[in-house]
Design brief:
This protein is mostly helical and about 90 residues long. It has helices at about 10-15, 25-55, 70-85. It is rod-shaped, with a radius of gyration of 28 Å. It binds zinc ion.
Length: about 90
Amino acid sequence: MNAPVTTPDTTAAAVVEPDLAGDWPALLTLAHVRMAGLIQENRELRDEIEQLTAEYCDTCGARPCVNPSFCEACRRADQNRKRRPRR
Ligand SMILES: [Zn+2]
């Protein structure tokens, strides 16, 4: 049994873009352009949230840490020096 053939509902499109109602290629192009814009906006907001929620580095004081591997190496070196005090 074949699925019933459906035709796109032009009502929603007519509400959003009355000038393009029924022009599905134009509506799809517009939808893709808007979606690309929203994806870009989402990425920028995610980066901003990451910046705002990042913690200050105890070693370099930057937020976020400028060079995590270097700062980690510095912290380890400091810990080793504390464990083995100079004579
Ligand atoms: Zn750091």
